[in-house]
Amino acid sequence: MENIQITMTDATIIIGYFIVVLIVGLFISKSAKNAKDLFLAGRSLHWVPIGFSLFASNISSSTLIGVVGAAYLYGISVANYEWMAAFVLVFILVFILPVFIRTKISTIPEYLELRYNKFTRHYFSIVTIILNIIVDLAGFLYAGAVVLHFFFPSIPIGAIIVFLALIAGTYTAVGGLSAVVYTDILQAIIIIMSSSILLYAILGQFDYSWDLAFSKIGANKTSFIRPSTDTYLPWTGTLFGLPILGFYYWVLNQQISQRLLAAKNINNARWGALLGGFLKLPVFFLLVVPGVLAFQLFPELGETSNLVFPTVVSELIPTGVLGIILVGVIAAIMSSADSAINSASTLIVLDFVEPNSPKLKPKQILYYGRIITIGIMLFAIIWAMVIGSFKEIFDYLQKVLSYMVPPVVVVFILGIFWRRGNSQAAMTTLIGGHIISLSILALSSFGYVNIHFTVLAGILTIVSAIMYITIVLLTNTEFTPKDEQTIIEDFSFLSVPIKDWRNDYRVISAILILCTIILVIGYW
Predict the structure, then answer these.
(1) N or C of the chain: less Cβ packing under 10 Å?
(2) Which residues on adjacent β-strands are paired with residue 473?
(3) Phi then psi for 319, rounded to 5 degrees?
């Protein structure tokens, strides 16, 4: 491997990026005058910023490293996590968004209080905060720091983590969600541009011939749908597990759904979700394909998948262009870190501080929000250094989620679609489901359970659903009229005649699904 040369041009691009992001973030901060502005951008977001922000927040540093590295080892089946998003997002904008917008919730856990009781809200909020800070935020910072340390070996990983967290935390604390969303537009463009350069560079090693590039790759690495015995992602996991993980990520994860809750109206929320879905499709070409092709160029990397991305960049990207790629990595870190910081502070303030302190004035809540944001940033810095012991970062994040989210998904879905769902069933499912999940996690850690985590997510969802339905059938709680807004009332909106297909979300949703199906069939 050649020594990496960071030229003045590269350094200028990187420094310029940080300056622009800070300027944009601090400029937007002028609009944050109360908690609603800080955490929900005044509920004024249009669909274009929402779509780009969904994409940027999703493509984290863990994604860059994890997807490219997993594709290197296991092939294109890693893209199943990406194209599955289209189906989940369409489901959200058709069925879930009407309920969330109608109830005017500020946090996802708040829906649980409206539908069930305060306990379920606080319980899920605590779980989400833990996942956002300990799993997501720390993972984003550490994974990104590892890549940047590869290019700047003289700078300790810890120092890189501190610097990135301070930058992201600063504009997030002062500007809130508006600063996060509008900086994400820039960062999404940078991520797409830098990933395109990477794809172009690696295809150049195969004379820009798609057929030549894939000709020497085995069938086991060029198929989305893998056998049930596949160790990385069996078809059973793709069918039964990924939709569950996807529903949590795109619906129940505050750091993603917060953009939809902050939309100006339901139409902007729907079109933003659609734009995010279309932006997800090229990820297969921009990140997965380079990882698969890298195996032919750098087979010596073996099992060290976390080094695939930095190795490809250092070997194939010329100096002067390297700065653009590094800015893409930094943008991925920042867009995910600022989202996690903002969502965690939102949950703490709106689910705990504000409800328990009704006499607080708007400016006081704004002040507490900023202080809590800074506190989260400092904690994340410390914890990010601790998780350095986890080698397979992407798998680590997914496996943790597979054990934690099934009970929550059941409580939300059955609560929205089943009128008879009640608080007893919700509480029992959350607590009982997580006890079962953690017990299985402990057994699997000692080798007593050997089930793929995506398959296990499906199994745990079925167990949780049985638990919920059983409790409902054993209790006799009537559904009160005040709860009407918290469920799907009817499906008549689906039969409304199409007047202009270009402006009908149902038609565009169908096009998104069709594009996804074509992609999947093409690489079945």
Answers:
(1) C
(2) none
(3) -60, 150
Cα gap 517→524, rounded to integer Å: 10
Q: How far apart are the C-alpha atoms of 60 and 137, rounded to whole Å?
A: 10
User: Are 250 and 277 spatial neighbours (Cβ–Cβ below 8 Å)?
Assistant: no
Domain ranges of the chain: 1-18+57-76+132-215+281-391
CATH class assigned to 1-18+57-76+132-215+281-391: mainly alpha
User: For the chain, how many residues are written?
Assistant: 524
If we measure between CA atoms, which residue out of 282, 339, 271, 369 comes closest to residue 48? 271
**β-sheet bridge partners, residue 226:** 234
Task: Pull the structure tokens for residue 227.
Answer: 């056998």
* Cβ count near 488 (within 10 Å): 15
Check if the beta carbon of residue 110 is closer than 8 Å to that of residue 350: yes
Strand partners, 45: 263
In this predicted structure, the answer to whether residue 482 has a pLDDT above a threshold of 80 is no
Query: Residue 7 has which token pair?
Result: 């030229």
Going from the C-alpha of 284 to that of each of 14, 76, 280, 329, the distances in angstroms are 26, 8, 8, 17
Residue 263 forms beta bridges with which residues? 45
Confidence (pTM): 0.89
Q: Exposure of 458 by Cβ count < 10 A (0-12 exposed, 13-18 middle, 19+ buried)?
A: buried
Instruction: Give residues with Cβ within 8 angstroms of 243, minimum separation 6.
Output: 84, 87, 88
Residue for token digits 């569950």?
A: 244
Confidence tier at 112 by pLDDT (50, 70, 90): very high
Beta carbons within 10 angstroms of residue 450's beta carbon:
7
pLDDT, tens digit (0-9, with 9 covering 90-100), for 200-221? 999 999 888 888 888 878 777 8
Q: Which of 62, 81, 167, 6 is nearest to 454 (CA)?
A: 81
For the packed helices 322-348 and 8-28, what is the interaxial angle rounded to 10 degrees?
30
Q: Return the residue matching tokens 């089946």.
A: 77
